[in-house]
Every structure is written in C-alpha cells, then in structure tokens.
Amino acid sequence: MEKRPGLLNFPMKKVVIVDELRQLVDKERSFLNRSGIRIMGAASNKDILQQHRAHKADLIVAMLRDKSMSGEKLCATIRDDEELRTVSILLVCSSSEADHELCLGCRANAFITMPVSPAVLLQEAHHLLHIAPREALRTEIDVMLRLSSGRLKSGPRSVAKTESSSSGRSRAVRATRIASISSR
C-alpha cells in the first residue's frame, strides 16, 4: 500500500483520469492537489485499465464512449475481476437518455454529463474517494527553533490553523515537525 509523503501515514489515494479531463482538473485548485492524492493521466479507457492493474486506483474517471474500449467494457472488466473491483468508477457521457441508461446498467458508481463542469466533477470525485472535509485552512506562521547545535532557526512555515482548543497542541507539534524536517 502506497503511503503519502509527509507527516501522517494515511494511505495515498490514487486517481486515474482520462487526459482530457485531467487538464480540466489540473486548472482547478482543489482537494485533488493535496499531497495525499496521486493523479495519473491516461490517454484512453484501455490505458486507464492498464494503470488500474498496475497501481490499484481508488477512483477511475473514464469516458463512456471511447474508441479503444467502451466504458461498458471497462466497467465489466473491472467488476468481474476480484483484484480490481473495489475501485469507484465515474463515467462521463453525453446528455442523451441512451447514454444515461448505459451508465446505469454498467455498474459504474456515478456518471456526469458533457460538457463537464469542473465543480460537478470535483464534487463527485470527493464523494467517491470518501475524503473528509478539510477542517482548517493553511496559513503561514513564523517558527523559531533551537537546534541541537544551539543555532536558532526561524522562518515561515506552512501549517494548518485550527480554531478548536483541542487541536492547539497538535498544531505546535506539526509546526515543529515541519520546521525540523526543512532544517535538515
């Protein structure tokens, strides 16, 4: 299981997304830009399947209509394979009733229609990845540490700022850890 870099050792969430939609997502500042999420692009549904086999994604965002492999075939292949089936699948389709019925019948977790709204895509991805909402915004603070060598080290560090008193202690620990990591 791949772990995310940084302070906490939660499993990294992996998303495989078709390239044309990845460009749309990359433009947005969203939860997908967090360090705990790895986004992998793929040129086609066939490439998405290969990526998923290699990396065991948590979410796949694919096209219903794709020349290399239909979204129906992609879903069937994944859902019929014990090692691959636990992934969430979000399909993108046209607004036609026929496409909606295909999406409903092919065992995808959800579908959205074209033209794709970045907000709708991100909302569905957030839901399917089961990511807890962020409790605090990141802010810059100034931290001064006395290193074991006796030197003082100071400078801005990015940490989570929280309002609740119960997280004040962990905030100080996180600031110290971030500062000590960057001073090595």
Topology:
Elements lengths: L12 E6 H9 L9 E6 L2 H11 L3 E5 L7 H9 L8 E6 L3 H9 L4 E4 L4 H12 L7 E10 L5 E10 L6 H15 L2
Parallel strand pairs: 1-2, 1-3, 3-4, 4-5
Antiparallel strand pairs: 6-7
Summarize the structure.
By secondary structure, the chain is of the alpha/beta class. It has helices at residues 19-27, 45-55, 71-79, 97-105, 118-129, 168-182, and strands at residues 13-18, 37-42, 59-63, 88-93, 110-113, 137-146, 152-161.
Overview of this protein structure:
With 184 residues, the chain is of the alpha/beta class. The chain has two domains: 13-129, Rossmann fold; 137-182. It has six helices and seven strands. It has helices at residues 19-27, 45-55, 71-79, 97-105, 118-129, 168-182; strands spanning 13-18, 37-42, 59-63, 88-93, 110-113, 137-146, 152-161. The strands form two sheets. Strands 2-1-3-4-5 form a five-stranded parallel beta sheet, sandwiched between helices. Strands 6-7 form a two-stranded antiparallel ribbon. Helix 4 links the parallel strand 4 and strand 5. Mean pLDDT is 77; it is low at 157-184.
Which CATH class of the largest domain? Alpha Beta
CATH superfamily label of the largest domain:
Response regulator
> How many angstroms separate the termini?
27 Å
| Biggest pleated-sheet summary | 5 strands, parallel
Q: Which structural category fits the helices and strands?
A: alpha/beta
Jot down its keywords:
184 residues; alpha/beta; Rossmann fold; 2 domains; 5-stranded parallel sheet; two-stranded antiparallel sheet; 7 strands; 26% strand; disordered C terminus
